Write a sequence for this structure.
C-alpha cells in the first residue's frame, strides 16, 4: 500500500504538467539518494578482477546482475522513462537535474 502511494507521488511529481519546482525537488531527492547509495558501496568488496559471484552455492556471472542487492537499480528502472522525459523538459533547470541522474546511473 505504502509503495503504491509513493510510486504515485513520484510519477505525479515527474509528469510534464507538474510545477517545475516540484519536479526539481523530486529529481534532486532521487539524485541525492543515488549518490548516497554509491558512497555506501564498499570499494574493496567489488574488485575489478571479480567476474563471478556465488549465489546460493552456484557461481554466476556478475554481468548478469545475479546477487545484486542494490535497490537503486530497481528504483531507477521503475522511474527511468519519467527521468528521461524530464531530461527533455521545457525548463532548463529541470533538464539539468534529470541529466545529473542520468550521469550518475551511467557512472555506476
Amino acid at each position: 500500500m505504502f509503495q503504491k502511494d509513493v510510486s504515485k507521488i513520484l510519477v505525479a511529481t515527474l509528469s510534464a504538467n507538474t510545477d517545475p519546482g516540484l519536479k526539481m525537488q523530486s529529481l534532486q531527492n532521487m539524485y541525492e539518494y543515488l549518490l548516497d547509495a554509491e558512497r555506501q558501496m564498499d570499494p574493496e568488496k567489488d574488485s575489478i578482477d571479480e567476474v563471478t559471484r556465488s549465489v546460493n552455492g552456484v557461481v554466476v556471472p556478475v554481468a548478469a546482475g545475479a546477487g545484486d542487492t542494490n535497490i537503486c537499480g530497481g528504483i531507477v528502472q521503475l522511474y527511468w522513462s519519467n527521468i528521461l522525459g524530464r531530461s527533455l523538459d521545457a525548463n532548463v533547470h529541470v533538464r539539468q537535474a534529470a541529466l545529473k541522474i542520468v550521469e550518475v546511473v551511467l557512472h555506476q
